[in-house]
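Teaching note: in complex prediction, the entire set of molecules is handled at once rather than each chain in isolation. The prompt given to students was simply: 'Predict the structure of this complex.' The entities are:
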Amino acid sequence: MRARIGEYTARATESIRSEPGVRESVTGATLAFDRKRRNAYADIDSDHWRHWAEAVKNHTLTHLDDYLTQAEERLEANGAHVHWAADAAEARDIVTTIADDGLVATAVKGKSMLTEEIDLNPALEAAGIEVLETDLGEYILQLLDEPPSHILGPAIHKSLQQVRDLFADRLGSAPDGDPDTLAQAARRVLRDAFIHAEMGITGGNFLVAETGTVALIENEGNIRLTTSLPRVHVALVGIEKLLPRMTDLAGFLQLTARAATGQPIGCFVSLIQGPASQPGDDGPEEVHVILVDNGRTDVLAHPHAWEALRCLRCGACLNACPVYRQTGGHAYGYVYSGPIGSVLDPGLLGLHEAMPLPFASSLCGACFDACPVRIPIPELLLEWRREAQEQGLTPWKERAALAGLASVATRPGLYRLAGRIGARLGGTGAARALPMLGEWARDRALPRPSRRTFRELWREGIE
Amino acid sequence: MSAARAGSRERILERVARAAAGRERTAHPGNLGTRVAADPVAWFVKVFTSQGGEVVEGEGTLSAGEWLTGFLRGLDNKVTGVAVGADVPAELRPQLPVVAAAHAGAGISVAWAAVAETGSLILPSTGTRAVQLLPPVHIVWVPEGRVFARLEEALWELRDELPSAIGLHSAPSKSADIGQTVVTGVHGPGRCIAVLA
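The expected output is the structure of the full assembly:
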């Protein structure tokens, strides 16, 4: 996916000013998700679960080469084909080659952020393959030619009326249809696709090394159908998705669902070891697992950002974030948005490409409290900000203003003088003319400072 | 595998090893160890039904197949044809016409086991996946004594006899992607009914 992160400020401003419906839909959906997540955490010893999950992921990431080779060995023993993709182009090439070899005309897809990241659909379509997204939210967005705006609820920025209008236009459903009727209209189209498609494409929530198991979580049943009915199943799995043991999966399946939607577990979980091989099994003849790097080893090598690779893609940090809530995901300009996007994207794409996302946060810490694997998102945001400052990636006015502030703050006499001037001019609007402060104040009501400085009050004996 | 792809494998593994080289290699913390309730069956019923699943118990005076036939005839959508998983024994099959899964009013399966803490039915791929997924109603026999308290225990026992795929079904198919309103039966079965033998 081509990143458009540099346009973040303009797109966020535009979204808030021109599309108030997006803010309303996203706020309603994310607050509901977050409330369910809080209730689901309250039912368990969530501190213990989150510390455990953090420790399993840290262990895995510090032994990742061993677990990758173990998973490869097990998958091949199970009859699956394993491929390695260093970057997006190679991943696309592998999938289109498999499709070509298998004479694939139609592919059905389960929701996968990784396939969005590597821009898979356009590559398949260019190869003459019809691709149908089967997650209901993704299907809506495919009809609209829009990217997802939330990891979990890709179309949460769309209102019921917008979907009514879309389905009436594209599927011929009633213009006043209720959600049930609309879902049935989509089901009719997609049911036919499931039965006739030659290839099913999915991501992978986890890959268990000791058994070679690709684990997928969902609620609709479309992923189970995608991995069961077509002749060929291709799973694209980020190299950070490994888990050592099958018993680890028990905790992670539950924790992911609790963090994401507040459920004890997803309505459907698929655990896939390989192609159909036993009597009675009507599953795919071929299973391909593509292990994708595409910048993950760069993140792993970073002394701090590697912790973001624990991410389960549950979306809990997006739901908890007061900044994400204002705009939804499109403003962020990349597939991974919200707090996790703001710390992961600089690692995956390079900090220059991901500016100004590390600054798109109030640092309130709600994301860390929600994260099921305790990724220290606020600390990582600060680290990326520090590196951006060091590399000269912040605006020159901001650098000049901070240098000026440092100069004033380290000279007591100058600081006292500046404090007195600030107190006198604070209510006059003169602050809006200053570099950086002026930018910050453009869309805000500035507080009126006290007429007397703290030091003056202190001398008079404040209590 | 092409030469370029073989090169990618080595390059990725080399980069992974290099990235981890200077970092402390931490130990695995062991099993999570979730809580256990006294009665796994009651716990399963509570969790499964809280997510929209339904639970019934077979009648003792009838054979299982006769009971299921009557039960299916009594369902709202008046099932006339069923799809049956390849591993469902003869005594658990209803006396109704068997049709292709895509046209069946109900699919009949046997679970390998159920799990209480997640309210899940564990369905192996040897039970015919289309039967588990395509009909609007899914009826799942749960063999007596096969309700695990915890998912960890079930996966531990399963890991040495894994079929090519496993499905955990813990509720009917649902989605809230349209206007944040929950609808059921989106792609998979809209009713999931566990029958406790």
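Point out the following to students. Chain A touches chain B through 101 residues (CB under 8 Å). Strands of chain A lie at 81-85, 106-109, 130-133, 199-202, 206-208, 213-218, 232-238, 242-243, 268-272, 286-292.
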